Amino acid sequence: MLQNKHILLIVAGGIAAYKALDLTRRLQERGAQVRGLLTKAGARFITPLSFSALTGEKVHEDLFSLSDEAEMGHIELSRAADLIVVAPATADLMAKMAAGLAGDLASTVLLATDTPVLLAPAMNVRMWTHSATQRNAAQLARDGIAFVGPEEGDMACGEFGPGRMAEPLDIVAAIENHFQNSGAGIAPLPSIDKAPGPLTGRRVLVTAGPTYEPIDPVRYLANRSSGKQGFAIARALAELGADTVLISGPVTIPDPPGVQTVRVETAAEMAQACAAALPVDAAICAAAVADWRIAKPQSEKIKKNATGAPALPLAENIDILKSLSTDKKNRPLLVVGFAAETENLETHAREKLKAKTCDWIIANDVSPGSGVMGGDNNEITLITPDTQEQWPRMTKLEIGAALAQRLADHFNANKITALPLGSKRGSSHGSN
User: Fold this and answer.
1) What is the number of helices (H) and of strands (E) in the chain?
2) Is 157 one of the catalytic residues?
3) pTM of the predicted model, to two decimals?
4) 3-state secondary structure 170-209
5) Across-strand partners of 89?
6) Which residue among the candidates 157, 274, 285, 358 is catalytic per the annotation?
7) Tens of pLDDT along 2-15?
């Protein structure tokens, strides 16, 4: 997939810099040629010698290196790669990029390039959530810079929250996704236009991907959802101006630009994240949430023995779609569910619409021959209590764009006032 792709890996200063060495190996295993660039702070965490030994190339550090400028020059260095990856991308380097500063080799290369750039942010949770960093991230997304992560979790500083650098394999997946979607390899990564749009002022929640329900520390129950449809919807909503929160189960695709992405694993974690995101104007539940979980996951790996297969009693998971639809305090103005079926598509979808008390149901056929689960195309039927509309087969990106526009048209046609940020909503505002 990455055979003969040239990647410039910029490593900024942060404890997550150690992951850059593993990332280098993972990229090389897939045929990529990696050249390294260390910031002054990055060289405090990994040595130029170790980086160079892995890449087999000279590691670049100094903007004013006479030998480097004579051999290649920072302008050529910035343009010789098929993709520039910054991992970790610190708050400081992101701020320099957003402001167009060029005071060291890394920032100069990033300013001088016309090559696509992928950032893997890593910083303290308070630094990531600070308004300045969020403002800089939004500006970079508008400039066409792509992001992978950050993830939520424990940090070296002892705090917990969003700010952890994405794992090397997640970054590799984002890189592979870029080349797969761009074709030639030097096409720009998708940018996002955050100019005012028909959904400006709206806050929308989207769920995507599968959930993993643990059996023991190494096994889990899951499904084949790729998350592609939910991610496409979230991206399209952001492009129309919506303040979009994407809550995703475990997937291998990069975060959409301009979207606040929250990564979770289990159905319970997804439900908690959805509750924390409220209030919102609309909720689109595209995730394939596991209906059941193991009632009592084992703390140690279950061993095979002569007594045969272990008994694995199941417990029902929380119904996220129904919880959002019946929330008396913070019900979204519009709740949209997905019905992934293998038979009797319309019948089962209408039953789900009624049982979940949501406003719309998106029905799609996920039977083995459909190619929908994990694929790039989909064919949906939009069902409301009073209407039914079958859409032609399209790419998931096209469906995401069409559905986002339908949301905008719905709010505009019904003259529904946007929810003031930070306010709460009573159940009387529910839309049907």
Assistant:
1) 14, 21
2) yes
3) 0.57
4) HHHHHHHHHHHHHCCCCCCCCCCCCCCCCCCCCEEEEEEC
5) 121
6) 157
7) 888 999 999 998 88
